[in-house]
Structure formats: structure tokens, C-alpha cells
Design goal:
The chain has one helix and eleven strands; from the N terminus they run H-E-E-E-E-E-E-E-E-E-E-E. It is mostly beta strands and about 240 residues long.
Length: about 240
């Protein structure tokens, strides 16, 4: 009887270990399959931002910067190395001015005025957009964007969801922050060209506005066109 119980117990333990090994193997297999398949569904970028075509009277300084994120659905083109992708994204841009401010509460005219001021130690103009990006893509490894060379060109349409200025100084020895939020000077829509080139999960990218940042009737600043140059991390 003891031998029979021992034999049955040994068989049960062996079966359990075998089942666990199979489950672990299946999990590892799925993880490997996931790691070997990627079409850049998620793209996150950090950029240096600037204003092209700005008049000489506009003074910027420091490291103006931006943040970009997009979830995109990738559609391969007939089993080739090419695909098209579209999705939904968000971008934020922060441009620092050098001893200048924009009076956002100016009600006497629609002109954007850059006024000299030493009031703030730091002063920035921020814009935030909800976007629809479109890309035409090439991947050296068609089913795995985590490997090999890749490149894309495209465009994106953005809707302005927030525009504000923020100034920082000290008042009575304490940090003082003044924020003015107003979209009336800014174009409500953004149309931009995009390009991205990289290897594996890392890329460099650039964007440039095809239309001005400010509305047509806002004076000398009405031809300013923002641009971004940065690095991107992509995957999934």
C-alpha cells in the first residue's frame, strides 16, 4: 500500500511540475512573441522648440521645450516594408522669452505686442494641442519596429485646447507666479509637417507648422511658425 501511495504521489508531483513547466514555457513564448512584434503604436517625444519667421523684435532665450505623445494604429501595405498610420495625440510647447512679456489682457487691439520687461526672472508662452497625426512609414523589419532602420513622413492636424503665459519672480522673498490664459490671439487650428528617422525604439524627429501660430490680424508676429526638433521613444 505504501509503495502504491508513493508511486501515485510521485506521478501527481511529476504531472504538476510538467504542467507548470508547460505554463511557464507558454508565458515565455508569448512574451518572446510580443517582444518580436511591434508597429510603433505608441510614440513619445521630447523636443527643443523654436519660432521660425519671428521678427527681430521677438527675443527668446534658454531651452524652450516641448512634449509629444501619440497612440497610432498601423496598417501594413500588402505585406511590404511600408505602412500607413493614424491616431490621436497631444503636444505641448513652451517658448521662453528674454526680458519680454505679452500683455494678454490687452483689449485696445488684436495686435500681439512683445513688451520689454524685467518683471520676471522666467517668462514663457505655452500652447497645448489635441492632434490627429498621419504617417507614411518604412521599416526595415516589417513586423518588428523594435529592430532595424525605420523612417516616416507625415502631417498632423491639431486643435488648440490651451494657450497661456506664465511668469516667475519673487515677491517679499517668496516665489511668485503669474499665469494669464487667453486663446484670442492664437490660431485655433494647427497644421504641421512631420518627419521621423531612427533605429529600433529610438528616433530623431522634426515638426514645422504649415500655418502661423497667431491669427492674421495680430501684427508683426502673425507669421511666426513654431518648429520642434527632438528625440522619440516608440514601441508596442
Amino acid at each position: 500500500m505504501k509503495k502504491l501511495l508513493f508511486t501515485l504521489g510521485f506521478i501527481a508531483v511529476s504531472a504538476g511540475v510538467f504542467a507548470q513547466d508547460n505554463m511557464a514555457g507558454a508565458a515565455i513564448g508569448k512574451a518572446r512573441e510580443k517582444a518580436s512584434f511591434s508597429r510603433d503604436f505608441l510614440v513619445i517625444g521630447f523636443s527643443y522648440d523654436g519660432w521660425a519667421s519671428a521678427p527681430d523684435s521677438v527675443k527668446t532665450k534658454g531651452l524652450s521645450r516641448g512634449f509629444h505623445v501619440a497612440l497610432m494604429y498601423d496598417i501594413p501595405i500588402s505585406k511590404s516594408n511600408f505602412s500607413v498610420a493614424a491616431g490621436l495625440g497631444f503636444s505641448s510647447s513652451n517658448i521662453f522669452l528674454n526680458k519680454q512679456v505679452i500683455p494678454m489682457n490687452n483689449t485696445s487691439s488684436n495686435e500681439v505686442r512683445f513688451v520689454s520687461s524685467d518683471t520676471y526672472k522666467k517668462y514663457k508662452v505655452s500652447t497645448n494641442y489635441l492632434e490627429i497625426p498621419l504617417e507614411f512609414r518604412y521599416r526595415q523589419v516589417a513586423d518588428n519596429a523594435n529592430k532595424g532602420f525605420k523612417a516616416s513622413i507625415g502631417a498632423k492636424v491639431g486643435m488648440l485646447v490651451n494657450a497661456h503665459t506664465k511668469g516667475k519672480n519673487t515677491l517679499g522673498g517668496e516665489k511668485n507666479i503669474i499665469k494669464e490664459q487667453n486663446k484670442r490671439f492664437f490660431n485655433p487650428w494647427r497644421f504641421a509637417g512631420t518627419a521621423r528617422i531612427g533605429y529600433g525604439n529610438f528616433s530623431v524627429f522634426g515638426t514645422v507648422n504649415l500655418n502661423p501660430l497667431f491669427k492674421d490680424n495680430t501684427g508683426a508676429a502673425s507669421d511666426i511658425r513654431p518648429y520642434s526638433l527632438g528625440i522619440a521613444l516608440s514601441g508596442l
